[in-house]
Specification:
This protein is α+β, with helices and mostly antiparallel strands. A four-stranded antiparallel sheet has the order 1-2-3-4, with helices on one face. The radius of gyration is 67 Å and the shape is rod-shaped. The chain has three helices and four strands; from the N terminus they run αββββαα.
C-alpha cells in the first residue's frame, strides 16, 4: 500500500475525480441531448398529430355537411316521389272513371241503338199494317162503290175520305162524307163526318171491337140516310 505521504497521491486523486466529473458531464450532456431530441421529436409528433386531427376534423365536418345535404336531397326527392305517386293515383282514378263512363256510354248507345231499331221495326210494322188496313178498307168499300155509289178519296196522312151518294131521294148526287184513318196503335180511327153524326164515336167503338168494316160502312150509310130524310 502506497504511503499517504506519497506526494503524487493528491494529484492522482484530483485527476481521477476530474475524470469522473468529466464522464458525468458527458453523460449529462448525452442525457440532455437525448432529452432535447426526444422533446423535439415529441413536439413534431404532437404537431403532426394535431395537424392530422385538424385535417380529420375538417374532413369529418365536410362529410357531415355532405351527409346532411344528401339527407335533405333524399327527403326532397322522397316528398317529390310521394307527390308524383299521389298525382299518378289521381290520374289513374280519373282514367278508371273515364273508362267507366266510356263503358256506360257505350252501353247506353247500344241500348239506344236497340231501342231505335225496335222503334223502327215497330214503325215499319205499323206502317205495313196501316197499308194493309187501308187496302182492306178499299176492298171492303169496293162493293159499296160499285153498287151504292161510294167514292174513295185518298188524302194526306194515309187517310181516306168515303163519299156516299144515292142517299137523298130528292138529290141522289148530294154527298155524305166520312174520313177514316189508322192511328199510331194500328187501329181504325174516324176523323170527321159531314154532316156530323153524333153517334160516330159509338160506331167507331163497335168497329174497334168487331173489326168488321163492311158493317161499319153499312151503319154509317144508315145514319146518313136518317139525316137525309
Amino acid at each position: 500500500m502506497e504511503s499517504i505521504t506519497d506526494p503524487t497521491i493528491s494529484e492522482r486523486f484530483a485527476s481521477a475525480m476530474e475524470e469522473i466529473h468529466n464522464k458525468h458531464l458527458e453523460t449529462y450532456a448525452d442525457i440532455i441531448d437525448t432529452a432535447v431530441e426526444l422533446s423535439h421529436n415529441h413536439r413534431q409528433f404532437v404537431n403532426s398529430a394535431l395537424d392530422a386531427c385538424l385535417k380529420k376534423y375538417e374532413n369529418d365536418e365536410k362529410l357531415f355537411e355532405k351527409i346532411k345535404e344528401t339527407q335533405g336531397d333524399l327527403e326532397h326527392k322522397k316528398m317529390a316521389l310521394k307527390e308524383k305517386r299521389r298525382s299518378v293515383s289521381e290520374v289513374m282514378s280519373a282514367v278508371d272513371e273515364k273508362e267507366f263512363q266510356k263503358e256506360d256510354m257505350i252501353q247506353k248507345i247500344q241500348r239506344l241503338k236497340e231501342d231505335q231499331m225496335k222503334r223502327k221495326e215497330l214503325i215499319e210494322s205499323q206502317h205495313r199494317a196501316n197499308k194493309d188496313r187501308l187496302r182492306n178498307i178499299q176492298k171492303a168499300t169496293l162493293v159499296f162503290q160499285t153498287h151504292l155509289g161510294l167514292e174513295i178519296r185518298p188524302i194526306k196522312g194515309e187517310k181516306l175520305q168515303l163519299v156516299f151518294r144515292n142517299i137523298s131521294l130528292s138529290d141522289p148526287d148530294s154527298t155524305f162524307v166520312i174520313t177514316v184513318g189508322i192511328n199510331e196503335n194500328g187501329s181504325y180511327q174516324t176523323v170527321s163526318s159531314d154532316p156530323v153524326l153524333e153517334c160516330l164515336p159509338v160506331l167507331e167503338s163497335r168497329l174497334l171491337e168487331t173489326n168488321n168494316l163492311p158493317a161499319f160502312l153499312a151503319n154509317v150509310r144508315k145514319e146518313f140516310t136518317s139525316k137525309a130524310v
